[in-house]
Design goal:
Length: 276
């Protein structure tokens, strides 16, 4: 686990040219965006909003970024309600350094832990969307101040239980021989899945190990989610201990970003945070 970054030299310093060069999208960096240089040398773009604790930390999904609907909505909600809020891009995502295809679950979990250690203090409530749910569980194994968890279509162990398990013989052979395979995506360009992503994922599976301490937990799952099944949500519900509740939302899809769904996320965060 990376050591806490020095607040003078690490936190919120002006974006170094090397950060912007490696992201390849310097022109899109917004004035509010700040950068954290981690112990791994990665430049992590973030938006940090001080306020009343506990800190709410949004953990995005696979190939998502901190400008997504849920992250931006929750940031605005935190501003209205005076809550401390952090959102950021994993390496290879959004405005952070690195290339997506070179990253893996362990890298992104270290990015998240580094950002939380450096940019927050005291108890934190993790809000994990899709892959972010997996990342949140890994962070909770690393940090001892996770006081609550909200999972939105949480997808723990998806590289093994969804991707690898769903590959046919030809796809597995392509992955083994070429080190990557392209999967179609309804969200745009095909996903390039690398052999490293699959193998690294196997080293970070969470449903095969004892659960971390999470405090109060609320899981939200849409019935029309084509990417994460209800069975996954129920498996996670059974895996976790303590005050854990699962809400199934009829008709909601994987994006879980309708006005009603966003209100449910707010309500879940309040329910988790008020016990810290």
């Amino acid at each position: 686990m990376a050591e806490r970054s020095d607040p003078v030299n690490r936190i919120g310093r002006p974006a170094a040219p090397s950060c912007l060069t490696r992201t390849g999208n310097a022109a899109t960096v917004r004035p509010m965006t700040e950068f954290l240089v981690t112990a791994d040398g990665r430049c992590i773009a973030y938006h940090r909003r001080p306020g009343q604790g506990p800190w709410i930390v949004f953990l995005g999904g696979f190939k998502s970024d901190m400008e997504g609907t849920k992250a931006v909505h929750l940031d605005a909600w935190a501003a209205r309600t005076g809550r401390a809020f952090l959102r950021f891009d994993y390496s290879g995502h959004g405005q952070s350094s690195g290339t997506f295809e070179e990253g893996a679950i362990g890298d992104w979990a270290r990015d998240a832990a580094s950002a939380i250690e450096a940019l927050t203090d005291g108890p934190v409530v993790l809000v994990g969307s899709s892959m972010g749910g997996w990342i949140g569980l890994l962070v909770a194994h690393r940090l001892d101040r996770v006081a609550g968890f909200v999972g939105i279509a949480a997808a723990p162990d998806f590289t093994e239980d969804s991707m690898w398990a769903g590959f046919d013989a030809a796809q597995r052979e392509t992955l083994t021989q070429e080190g990557r395979v392209a999967l179609p995506s309804e969200y745009g360009a095909p996903y390039v899945i690398t052999q490293r992503l699959i193998e690294d994922g196997r080293g970070h599976l969470v449903l095969r190990r004892p659960p971390p301490r999470l405090g109060r937990v609320r899981l939200l799952q849409g019935t029309e989610d084509a990417d994460v099944t209800r069975e996954t949500a129920l498996r996670l519900l059974d895996h976790l201990h303590g005050d854990v509740r699962l809400t199934l939302v009829n008709g909601a899809d994987h994006r879980f970003s309708s006005p009603d769904c966003l209100t449910l996320i707010e309500t879940a965060i309040v329910a988790v945070a008020q016990r810290t």
